[in-house]
Amino acid sequence: MSQEFKLPGEKIAFLEEYLPGENTFDDGESIRSTMIGKAEFDKEERIALVKNEKSNSIPKIGDEIVGIVEAALGSMIAVSMQYINGIKVNSNVECICATRHMRKKNVALVKDIVKLKIINHINGTIHASMDESHLGVLFTKCRKCFGEVFKDRDSVKCKECGWFDDRKLSSDFGKSDFLK
Q1: pLDDT tens for residues 55-69?
Q2: Domain 2-51, what architecture?
Q3: H-helix or E-strand containing 57?
Q4: Regarding beta strands 64-72 and 19-20, do their DSSP bridges make them parallel or antiparallel, or are they unpaired?
């Protein structure tokens, strides 16, 4: 294995030569680094990867994240990651979560706290899902008066104004110990 120091976003190899490995992504033409570290090339397995002794703030496929919804569009939400597998991160990395297949008018709204599972890294974009029952909105406020809400079946109801709102709620909704 040969080693070479790389920065995030820097090209490591071409797709024709190697497959993307740990801490790398495929941008369609080449393999690029997702973190600062030493590039390593496994010539037998044909895999390019980046190693670093420090912890990484980029989640891996299968990791669960807790974050704040920064944008809510018709078919997806953008989430700023705050915790990866219960560990606080300060990287301001965002992921997207497709919501078009869910039968909810508002899966989550801006400033909701949500729990997601990372499902893929495509072209430098981190994709997440909230399809499992323990994934979804962990904390929200009323969209009309910003009052406190409580769970009412599969939606939330405001304690102050009585407004009902449909969200994709996590089974941990309303629990203060959702970080495990």
Answers
A1: 667 888 999 999 999
A2: Beta Barrel (2.40)
A3: none
A4: unpaired
